[in-house]
Sequence to fold (900 residues):
Amino acid sequence: MTRPSPTAEAPVEAPVRQRRKETRPQELLDAALALFVEKGFAATRAEEVAHAAGVSKGTLYLYYPSKEELFKAVVRQNLTSLIAEGMETLAQHQGSSSELLVMLMDTWWERVGNTAAAGIHKIVLSEVRNFPELADFYTAEVIQPADLLFSTAVQRGIDSGEFRPVPVHEVAHALMAPIIFLALHRHSFGACTPPCGATGVEPKRLIRTHLDLALRGLQVRPADA
Amino acid sequence: MTRPSPTAEAPVEAPVRQRRKETRPQELLDAALALFVEKGFAATRAEEVAHAAGVSKGTLYLYYPSKEELFKAVVRQNLTSLIAEGMETLAQHQGSSSELLVMLMDTWWERVGNTAAAGIHKIVLSEVRNFPELADFYTAEVIQPADLLFSTAVQRGIDSGEFRPVPVHEVAHALMAPIIFLALHRHSFGACTPPCGATGVEPKRLIRTHLDLALRGLQVRPADA
Amino acid sequence: MTRPSPTAEAPVEAPVRQRRKETRPQELLDAALALFVEKGFAATRAEEVAHAAGVSKGTLYLYYPSKEELFKAVVRQNLTSLIAEGMETLAQHQGSSSELLVMLMDTWWERVGNTAAAGIHKIVLSEVRNFPELADFYTAEVIQPADLLFSTAVQRGIDSGEFRPVPVHEVAHALMAPIIFLALHRHSFGACTPPCGATGVEPKRLIRTHLDLALRGLQVRPADA
Amino acid sequence: MTRPSPTAEAPVEAPVRQRRKETRPQELLDAALALFVEKGFAATRAEEVAHAAGVSKGTLYLYYPSKEELFKAVVRQNLTSLIAEGMETLAQHQGSSSELLVMLMDTWWERVGNTAAAGIHKIVLSEVRNFPELADFYTAEVIQPADLLFSTAVQRGIDSGEFRPVPVHEVAHALMAPIIFLALHRHSFGACTPPCGATGVEPKRLIRTHLDLALRGLQVRPADA
DNA sequence: CATGAATGAGACTTCATTCAT
DNA sequence: TATGAATGAAGTCTCATTCAT
Fold:
């Protein structure tokens, strides 16, 4: 079997020569993402990334001129996909605003919070001070779109009379924070033995409870009329 | 400002040997906290910490046997006081549970979110994978007490009939997360020029809005009866 | 000698990167042996060893994970051959025990006393206290085999009626000591200008005299009969 | 008990103030000798010496300007006493040369081999290369006198017809070596658990056996006449 | 005299990066 | 292109020595 089947991916252990060079950058970025998230930027050695991607140290430098550039590439590549998905979800929705928020939160958790992508947020949070140029980039590409996504959804509910009038940005923050916060923890404390770093909070129930609370707080009550 | 004020002390430039065994640990911890929060653990050089504290490299090692131990000491020293204060506030409260939560949130922001102490959470979040023993320590000393503090307050409201029956841990998480999350951001993105990393969210208003939303969501409505 | 011979290679000055994975360990061990013997373990800097071997500091650590391990490797590498040779000599001998002892002593001096290998004994003697695990190793690999070698030879002479009955271990010690002792001195005092550290003792004559004395002391005299 | 009795010496543990400054140098030298012998020059920290002598680090430097000077002082001070004793023994002897040698060897072992003084030989052997100025000193003060002591004794026996004519310096070396060698080993390997570094050689028996062998070798036999 | 806090040069070791093969 | 041996700057930590008290 000299030619690996196109669907088989086993980057770490495959000593298969003849790997196609087109997939190299992606394999390196994947390996780097996992390691940067797990150990942080400084504690991840360039050689580890190369090894995890199944190539030698030298090869890494054939694709990325430095560890810093690799880091930035990891962030960039993982951000573009995030953004696209979020905006798409927003644009396609048709139902009530409460339903929209429920769906956004669920999607957010499935696509971001519960995947390696959430790790991106952790490393950016940890390293922006050392990579100032990432700040503008991340703000424009992630923070503001996410804020736009949720605040637009809230505004939509206010406009339709479904929600009370509230400061939309603050509410957007309050809506997203618990989910992202939970994701952050799962990528740091979450690695240790069960009880540690945890308070018995279970993701699914957290989302339900959080939304139940927030939607009740948002919805217009009879008494408000 | 070409003329330094006579009262301003500049520990960095003092070339004189000063014997201050009592105050040195605190000075070193303060310097370390600031630098660790700003640059991360790995990117902060031991000599920088010493210099910022106005002592030489060797002196740092007179008080802390390694950079790791210094880090742990920073975490410990900044946390013990936090926990104590929170529990005290809880114990002493007499009024309604809604008032209690408002007060806890305000205090939390003033004593934690808005101070360097919030930076602690950022570095722990970033470094806990590299310091496994820190995980247990931090969980026991910070995360669980904080969870206890807020979930007890919520339970108090439920017991008195002020709040609906809700899963207290999840609600506690949802209550704390936006505040801590905001603090995390101010210690990372917050360092750059105003609009960056921000979405126009203003701390005080966030807290008001967040609490308004959450308390409405918690309180028993006539319709629930 | 102002003109360097064209065949002499000067590894120290070669600024070119040379890939020589196979020969590097040996080159490093040789350099380390010479320097450890000359200056002691602690006074020899890792960089000196690397430089003497014609490589950079980092390369040394590519082959040996620490200065301690390098030291142990030097000891091991220089001992294995020693032991093997000694035992072989013993096994192959056919003549009288007196002749055997003469031959062992001569070989010992040529292969050990008069070579860098004797320096090993000096550094081990100086450093065992700092490397406890080295003690067992050296005892098992060098001291006991050497004792076995000589005490077996003496016992052989006693069994054949050539030597008087004597405590073999003590005699073995007394036979080896003057030679090793001389070797030790040549690696310490011997480095300075001729008269210093010396008492006019000339190695060859010492061995002759020492053996003459010892063999007369060992051999059965008519009067003993 | 504010004034320690003059005869009580407990340098290490006595926190007694008012220690007389006359004895300080001696206490420091004693502590340094023990530590240098045990751990070597480089591995012995100045503070350890000071602590073992019951004083602070600064005080050590009041008496000796540097660790190197302390080392040299240790060697010098311990050598002078050695020499004096040896020469005295020689001068006072009256009996046969065989008896003289037996006595010299016994004395040598008791006063040198079996005491910390033997450690001096070990450290000098280990460090001369780093302290070249010690070489001449040690040669003149120890090696040559010791050689003179034993070779004179042997020559005395030859002159009286008691011993065969032999090269006296080589014989002197052969006589001393086993004893000194044993002493060296006891200060290095001797520190570890019993069987290690040893070959079952027992000092007293070694000396007896060694002398028995050597004297038989030296003495004129009937057959030689 | 004595102390011990403070200093800073220097050693070991790591690892991002280079480059001959 | 790919490799991995080699490099050397940089960081952590030690400890001989100094000096204010």
In short: Residues 45-47, 57-58, 61, 65-67 of chain A lie near DNA strand E (CB under 10 Å from a C1'). Chains A and C do not touch (no CB pair under 8 Å). Residues 55 and 101 of chain A are 44 Å apart (CA to CA). Residues 1-18 of chain A have pLDDT under 50 and may be disordered.
